Every structure is written in structure tokens, then in C-alpha cells.
């Protein structure tokens, strides 16, 4: 079997079975689940939020139940029954409908709390419609007169192409992407550098390098970490699809979903595009550089320090992306969007804001991927020397000695 | 056969190895001895291609290829395993890197654990084992794939006599199936006991190279073990006696200035009568090591 693949599978399985990786993947879902659960528990059940409708006029009652749009229950038909149910908090309250002399319609709500403003509007609309019908009947108007009175004013919104929802979608996409990339890079840079630094502090590397070449081992390590990231992304994609399904159908979120569906669609479109390839390539590049940093440490105790240079670099690129978020057309953003390490943040920023063409994105991606391949090739070449150099010579001394070994 | 021909390695101004040459044949055990810093580990690292070096190292007449590394079993000087793995996982992982399928290695693990008297179960994690048992697991990792070239850097270090014997048995068994074996050791008795040949390094240079008996004999039979009622003072007056050391009641070790002095001493001490012991031998490897390895006569 290919030795690179053996190292890849070992690296991947060892990490994937660890509690820290499971927690890393599940944490967002636990957080969303907890939020959802608390909201669900805190929100009254369907019955408890219903309003009973009481009326001597059966047709009026039925009409309200069917057409008012208010969340009602037909279970209670008398005032006493509705009062009891209200006291027991089984329902939100009850509304008593009346028509006086068949000329005026009235409604009185009885309950412990005020009706929601949306429901008040619906009730008002139902009553107005009914009252208009009664008025027309009382006034004995002709059909023409009735039609003339039925004319309503119109109100429309003519929205420009760059709508508010577009802007919101861009802002949300940018923040999700930048924070996601930042967290992923920080997490995996740290995991990679520490794992390699810890290995370097032991002599197991000599045993391994007596079996396979340092290049194959190094590539296997990087691919193992990449598989972990892909696993995390797949779990997020599947989990995200499940959450979308739940959000579309749950009574808690269905309204909100339909309201924000266009924005959510645009955000997903911005994220699940070439931007995701930029994120993956960035992770690969940072992983390679982290492995290099880990290989320069000489003691196991220093493993935690190994990732610091990469984490600071990531912090710098993150800060730059945040600083230029409002000015995607800046010349600095344009130039840095082609420079590896920076391009993973800045080219997606330009793409989201429509200030870069797909051709420019592809060029930036080619430069980024070429840097990944080039650095993997070079670090793979010197990796054996770096890993077997265990004298305490400081950063540059370690590098110099490592380069001289192989 | 492993052939090391004229290899040299410099670290800046330090000459770690200088024109080192030796051969290790199949079915042969070679002891590589020398003081700390003499170049033993650098020699091993050169064979394993961890270092750039001048000279040539070949296996069966060819430079070592990637496939040849599957036939190598290497035990580094400092022991180290992946502490979070179980014994089985560790052995299988390292064996897979030697191109051995897991289903071939797994059934052998129990047998090897018994052979080395490892206290623990194959499912035990490495970090739960004692230091001695971890060392034995590492030895199993080195030998379980039945390598043709075995390189052991200080394999007896830290082993008690019982476990050292178990290791010697495993090394001899590997030799009997035809493996070429090199090991370094500071304990000359182990080298004397199981090695066919030895190479001694001093400051990166070969100072001794040959069979164990051949190396000893080239120093002459200048050690005389004697049981007699003579006193040490009397013995030291004899011609050709350099020094006398009492090693027991009436039991002495004499260092001769010349091996040819032996017959005259025999005649003088026995005067034609029986004595319990008169044994003229070359110096022990330990004595040679003390004399040659550091370039200083410690006696």
C-alpha cells in the first residue's frame, strides 16, 4: 500500500477519533440545537397560544374562525368554558363577537395579556370587512355605488437593483467567510504545528524515516489534516442542509425563513462558490507552513510555541480583511488579493462585492495553488533534515543545521 | 551484504566520520563500538540515508532503494513510541510502513509479546506500560517484519540481565535466518558473546576491524590468569611481568610486556609441579575498548 496513504489515514483517524475533534465539529450544532431547544421550550405550545371564539351568531363565529387569520381554536363554544380554559392557561384568551341590530359588529377580547399587535390588526381587518358589508346592506346601495366605494388606494415599492437585501447578503457573507476561514486556519495551524513539534521531540521520526521517505511522510501528514478539514466541511454542509429543512418547516422559524429566504439564498451562493476553494487552498498553505514551523522546534515543551508565527500571520491577514471590508475597490486590496496568504481573504471580499471578475479570481487561485504545491515540494525536500535536527540552536540555527543534514 | 565504503561526514569543522569502511555479511552479527561521540550513530544515520555523506553505502551491491528500506529493522538509541496508540496499533502502523499488511502482522503480535515477556495486553495503550515494557514493544516493532538488515543502536541499554538474554536470543535467531545485523554497545561482554565481527571507531575513524577473536589476538596473549601460592610481590619480580592484580585469594591477573614471556613464567611458577590455573589470553574486549576507544591507556 502507498506509504503516503498509510500516513494520511493514520493522521486522519487518530485525530478524527479524538474528543477534541468531535467537539470542534459538533460545537456549532450543539450551540444551534441548544438555542433552538430553549426557544422551543420558552415558546408556548400551539393550544396555549390559541384564542377561543364565542358568539351567539354561529355563522359569524365560523366566519371568524375560517377567515380572520388569527390563531384560533373552535374547541370552546361558551363563555364559561373559555373562561376556565383561560384560567388554566390552556388558551391565550377568548373573543366575544356580536352584531347589534344587524347594523354594528363588535368584538371584545378577554384574556390575561394584550393580544399581539399582528393579531389585533387581523381582527380589525376582519371586523372592518364585515362592517362594510353590513353598511352596504343598511344603505341599500346599488351595485355601481358599492363598486365605487370598494375602490382602494394602491401602494407599491419600486426597488433598485442594489437593494438593501443585496447589501445585507454581502455583509453577512463576508463576515461568515472571514470568521470561518480565520477560525479554521487558526485551529488547524495549531493542530498541525503542535503535532509535528511533539513528534520531533521524540525519536519515533528516526524509526519512521527508516521506513519511508520524509517527503512521503510530510505529504501524508498534510493530506491527513486536509481530510480532517474536508470532513468538517462535509459535516457542516450536511448539518446546514438539515437545519435549512428544519428551519423551513418549524413553526418557530418558518415565518422568519420565508421572510429572509432571498438573503439566505444569496449568502449561500456567495459561500458555496469559488470562495470555498480559496478557503481550502488557504488551509492547505497554512498547514504546510505550520508543519514547517513545527519542524523547527527542538523540544516537546516548545510545541505550543510552534504555531505562533502562522497564527500571527493569520491574524494579520484577518485584520487586513476587516480593515478593508468597506473599501473592496482599494488598490491595496486589489494588489494583495493576488498574494498568497492574503488572497484567501481579499479575493473573496472582492468577489462578494462584485469588484473582481471570475478571471481575476481564477488567476489569484492559480497563484495560490502554485504556492501550495511549491511550498509542499520544497518543505518536503528539507523536512527530513529539519525533523532529525534536534540540537538546541534557535530558529535560524535549527533551520541552517536542518538544511545541511539533507 | 551491507557494504560501507570510505564514508566521511563533516558537521562544519567537526569530522564526525572519516573514511569509514566495513562490510556486514548475511547471517553475521557486527558490533560497532566506540566512545560516546565516536561516530556510531552518525554511521547508522548514514546507512539509513538520514544524512548527506561522502562515500558509498550499498546493499547487495546496489545503493539502497526505497524497497530496501522495507527490509531494514532499526532501533534508535533513544526509545520512543506513539504513546496514545495501543500496542497493536503501534506495531501494525510501523509494520505497514514496512509494507507488511495488517492481517499478516496482527496474528504474530501475541507470539512476539510472549517471546519478549511483555507484561500487558495487545490492547493496552503504550503510555500505560512500564518503561521496560515500552522498550520491548519497540524491539518487537524493529524485528516483527523479519528484516534482512537489522540496525540496533545501544539495544541493551536499560535492559536487566534477563531481558538482555531475551534480546540476545532474538538477535541470534535473526542471524540464523540469514539477517545481517549491526549493533552498537558499551557493554563489551555482549559484543564478545554474540558478535562475529567488530568495528571500533575513535573520533570518526576505524581503529579496529575484524573478527572478535582476530581483534583480540592482534594485541597478543599478554594477559595471564594464575592461581598460585606465590605472592603478588614475588610475581612482579618475574621477567616480562608488567603488573600484577590480585583478583582473589591466590588468584592473580598478570599483564605481560610481551606474550613470549609466558613459557619462562610458567617454568618459574610451576617448577615442574601441578598448579590449578595458568591461562595466557589476549586482552578482553573491555580492556581493548579502554585502551583503544579513547586512544588512552586507562590501566
Automatic annotation (TrEMBL), chain A:
Keywords from the named record: Cell membrane, Membrane, Transmembrane, Transmembrane helix
Membrane topology: Multi-pass membrane protein
InterPro entries named among the record's database cross-references: ABC-2_transporter_component, ABC2_TM
Entry keyword Ribonucleoprotein: no
Keyword Protein biosynthesis: no
ABC-2 type transporter transmembrane domain: residues covered: 19-377
Subcellular location: Cell membrane
Chain segments annotated as transmembrane: 21-42, 172-191, 222-247, 276-298, 310-339, 359-379
PANTHER family: MEMBRANE COMPONENT OF ABC TRANSPORTER YHHJ-RELATED (PTHR30294), MULTIDRUG ABC TRANSPORTER PERMEASE YBHS-RELATED (PTHR30294:SF29)
UniProt protein name: ABC transporter permease
Organism: Lactiplantibacillus songbeiensis
Automatic annotation (TrEMBL), chain B:
Transmembrane helix among keywords: no
InterPro entries linked: AAA+_ATPase (IPR003593), ABC_transporter-like_ATP-bd (IPR003439), ABC_transporter-like_CS (IPR017871), ABC_Transporter_VariousFunc (IPR051782), DrrA1/2-like_C (IPR025302), P-loop_NTPase (IPR027417)
GO terms assigned for molecular function: ATP binding
Domain of life: Bacteria
UniProt keywords, alphabetically: ATP-binding, Nucleotide-binding, Transport
Pfam families xrefs: ABC_tran, DrrA1-3_C
PROSITE patterns: ABC_TRANSPORTER_1, ABC_TRANSPORTER_2
Domain ABC transporter: 2-228
SMART domains: AAA
Protein name: ABC transporter ATP-binding protein
Amino acid at each position: 500500500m502507498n506509504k503516503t496513504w498509510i500516513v494520511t489515514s493514520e493522521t486522519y483517524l487518530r485525530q478524527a477519533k479524538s474528543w477534541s475533534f468531535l467537539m470542534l465539529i459538533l460545537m456549532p450544532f450543539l450551540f444551534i440545537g441548544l438555542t433552538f431547544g430553549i426557544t422551543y421550550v420558552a415558546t408556548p405550545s400551539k393550544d396555549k397560544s390559541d384564542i377561543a371564539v364565542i358568539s351567539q351568531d354561529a355563522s359569524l363565529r365560523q366566519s371568524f374562525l375560517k377567515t380572520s387569520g388569527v390563531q384560533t381554536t373552535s374547541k370552546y363554544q361558551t363563555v364559561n368554558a373559555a373562561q376556565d380554559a383561560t384560567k388554566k392557561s390552556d388558551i391565550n384568551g377568548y373573543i366575544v363577537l356580536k352584531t347589534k341590530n344587524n347594523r354594528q359588529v363588535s368584538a371584545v377580547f378577554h384574556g390575561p395579556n394584550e393580544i399581539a399587535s399582528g393579531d389585533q390588526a387581523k381582527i380589525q381587518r376582519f371586523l372592518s370587512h364585515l362592517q362594510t358589508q353590513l353598511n352596504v346592506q343598511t344603505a341599500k346601495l346599488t351595485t355601481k355605488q358599492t363598486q365605487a366605494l370598494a375602490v382602494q388606494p394602491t401602494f407599491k415599492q419600486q426597488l433598485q437593483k442594489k437593494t438593501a437585501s443585496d447589501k445585507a447578503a454581502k455583509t453577512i457573507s463576508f463576515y461568515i467567510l472571514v470568521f470561518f476561514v480565520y477560525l479554521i486556519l487558526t485551529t488547524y495551524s495549531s493542530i498541525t504545528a503542535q503535532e509535528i513539534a511533539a513528534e520531533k521531540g521524540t525519536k519515533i521520526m528516526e524509526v519512521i524515516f527508516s521506513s519511508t521517505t520524509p517527503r512521503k511522510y510530510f505529504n501524508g501528514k498534510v493530506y491527513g489534516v486536509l481530510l480532517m478539514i474536508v470532513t468538517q466541511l462535509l459535516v457542516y454542509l450536511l448539518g446546514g442542509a438539515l437545519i435549512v429543512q428544519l428551519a423551513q418547516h418549524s413553526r418557530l422559524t418558518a415565518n422568519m425563513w420565508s421572510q429572509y429566504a432571498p438573503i439566505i439564498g444569496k449568502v449561500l451562493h456567495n459561500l458555496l462558490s469559488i470562495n470555498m476553494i480559496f478557503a481550502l487552498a488557504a488551509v492547505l498553505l497554512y498547514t504546510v507552513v505550520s508543519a514547517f514551523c513545527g519542524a523547527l522546534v527542538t523540544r516537546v515543551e516548545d510545541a505550543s510555541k510552534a504555531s505562533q508565527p502562522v497564527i500571527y500571520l493569520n491574524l494579520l491577514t484577518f485584520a487586513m480583511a476587516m480593515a478593508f471590508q468597506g473599501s473592496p475597490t482599494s488598490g491595496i486590496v486589489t494588489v494583495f488579493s493576488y498574494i498568497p496568504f492574503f488572497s484567501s481573504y481579499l479575493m473573496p471580499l472582492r468577489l462578494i462585492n462584485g469588484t473582481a471578475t471570475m478571471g481575476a479570481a481564477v488567476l489569484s487561485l492559480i497563484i495560490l495553488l502554485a504556492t501550495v504545491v511549491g511550498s509542499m515540494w520544497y518543505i518536503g525536500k528539507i523536512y527530513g533534515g529539519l525533523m532529525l535536527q534536534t540540537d538546541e540552536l534557535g530558529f535560524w540555527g535549527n533551520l541552517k543545521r536542518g538544511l545541511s543534514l539533507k | 551484504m551491507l557494504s560501507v565504503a570510505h564514508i566521511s561526514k563533516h558537521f562544519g569543522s567537526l569530522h564526525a566520520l572519516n573514511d569509514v569502511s566495513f562490510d556486514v555479511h548475511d547471517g553475521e552479527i557486527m558490533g560497532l563500538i566506540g566512545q560516546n561521540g565516536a561516530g556510531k550513530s552518525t554511521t547508522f544515520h548514514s546507512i539509513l540515508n538520514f544524512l548527506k555523506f561522502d562515500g558509498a553505502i550499498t546493499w547487495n551491491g546496489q545503493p539502497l532503494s526505497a524497497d530496501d528500506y522495507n527490509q531494514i529493522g532499526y532501533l534508535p538509541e533513544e526509545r520512543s513510541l506513539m504513546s496514545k496508540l495501543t500496542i497493536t496499533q503501534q506495531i501494525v502502523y510501523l509494520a505497514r510502513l514496512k509494507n507488511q499488511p495488517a492481517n499478516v502482522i496482527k496474528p504474530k503480535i501475541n507470539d512476539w509479546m510472549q517471546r519478549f515477556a511483555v507484561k500487558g495486553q495487545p490492547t493496552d495503550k503504550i503510555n500505560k506500560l512500564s518503561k521496560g515494557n515500552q522498550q520491548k514493544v519497540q524491539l518487537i516493532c524493529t524485528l516483527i517484519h523479519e528484516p534482512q538488515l537489522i540496525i540496533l543502536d545501544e539495544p541493551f541499554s536499560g535492559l536487566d540481565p534477563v531481558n538482555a538474554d531475551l534480546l540476545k536470543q532474538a538477535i541470534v535467531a535473526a542471524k540464523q535466518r540469514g539477517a545481517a545485523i549491526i549493533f552498537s554497545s558499551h557493554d563489551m561482554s555482549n559484543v564478545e558473546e554474540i558478535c562475529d565481527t567488530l568495528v571500533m571507531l575513535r573520533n570518526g575513524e576505524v581503529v579496529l576491524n575484524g573478527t572478535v577473536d582476530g581483534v583480540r589476538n592482534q594485541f597478543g596473549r599478554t594477559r595471564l590468569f594464575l592461581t598460585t601460592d606465590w605472592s603478588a610481590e614475588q610475581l612482579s619480580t618475574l621477567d616480562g611481568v608488567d603488573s600484577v592484580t590480585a583478583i582473589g585469594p591466590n588468584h592473580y591477573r598478570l599483564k605481560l610486556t610481551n606474550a613470549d614471556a609466558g613459557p619462562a613464567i610458567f617454568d618459574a611458577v610451576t617448577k615442574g609441579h601441578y598448579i590449578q590455573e595458568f591461562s595466557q589470553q589476549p586482552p578482553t574486549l573491555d580492556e581493548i575498548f579502554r585502551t583503544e576507544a579513547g586512544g588512552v591507556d586507562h590501566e
